[in-house]
Design brief:
Length: 72
C-alpha cells in the first residue's frame, strides 16, 4: 500500500505536531485515493540533523526553520 515519507529538520516540530501531520496527511490522501487505500497508508516523519539539509547551495539549520515558523 502507499508509503508517504516526510522529511523535516530535527527539533522544529513537537511529537504532538508530528502526530497531527501524520493524521492529516493520511486523511488528505484518503480523500483522493479512497478509504480502503487510506487504511493501508503508511506515513513516516523523518528528522534530518540541523545543517544536513540544503537547497540552492544554502545550508538550512533548525534555527532557520524555527525562524520561518515564527513568521506565521
Amino acid at each position: 500500500m502507499p508509503s508517504i515519507d516526510i522529511q523535516v529538520l530535527e527539533g522544529v516540530f513537537s511529537a504532538e505536531e508530528k502526530a497531527e501531520i501524520i493524521r492529516k496527511v493520511t486523511d488528505a490522501f484518503g480523500e483522493v485515493a479512497g478509504q480502503t487505500i487510506r487504511a493501508g497508508t503508511s506515513v513516516r516523519v523523518h528528522e534530518v540533523s540541523s545543517g544536513s539539509w540544503g537547497y540552492a547551495g544554502n545550508i538550512l539549520t533548525t534555527e532557520d526553520a524555527l525562524e520561518m515558523r515564527a513568521r506565521d
